[in-house]
Amino acid sequence: MNKYNELQALISGSNNIVFFGGAGVSTESGIPDFRSVDGLYNQKYSYPPETILSYSFFINNTDYFYDFYKNKMLFLEALPNNAHIKLTELEKIGKLKAVITQNVDGLHQKAGSKNVLELHGSVHRNYCMECGKFYDVNKVKESKGVPHCICGGIIKPDVVLYEEGLDNEIIDKAINYISNADVLIIGGTSLAVYPAAGLIKYYKGNKLILINKSTTPMDRMANLVINDSIGKVFACLNLIISI
Ligand code: ZN
What we know:
The chain is an alpha/beta fold. Helix content is 37%, strand content 17%. A hairpin with a 5-residue loop joins strand 4 and strand 5 (134-135).
């Protein structure tokens, strides 16, 4: 049985699948991974992305932060790819229980997924740091320089910056889904970045599927490893299911 058939069999045989996705799921929609060396690096910026996207940098250099953020983090025209679309279908037919993502672009929701746990927040939610008033992403995108609330306060994206902690409620939910999952599919992540590596250890089953272009430190723990593009793999799955 080839790997695609194996994947198909595991998915066909389960009604309790959980998907955990990383930056690779979004890069196939044209959104660069700021952690990859040739990703967001640009001579225009004199700090590494990890510095600019830190809480202290946001507080001390808000102008600079937003210049980078609007140019390199907001890809509002990006469209869901086959991975997002297929996951939405799997949720609709009751097989997929949750999407857990490290991405902040909202593409899973754009594709139609309902139960999405966003570990690192979302660019689509923004709050005034003074009064807490909510603003959508257009307010940030269209503002000149630093976006301000009508009260005068600075608006901050609901994105987990470096130095900031993750939302415990979302982490608890993610752990709950992972620890109760029958099939766990991990896609588009090298599993090197917190919290991905830590969350996987909560999985108790024997149907761990890893789909990533390159090998990962967890490959030997997995029951099925496919080193390929996640969009391509899910596109094939789509064909197999529709036959
Ligand atoms: Zn305000």
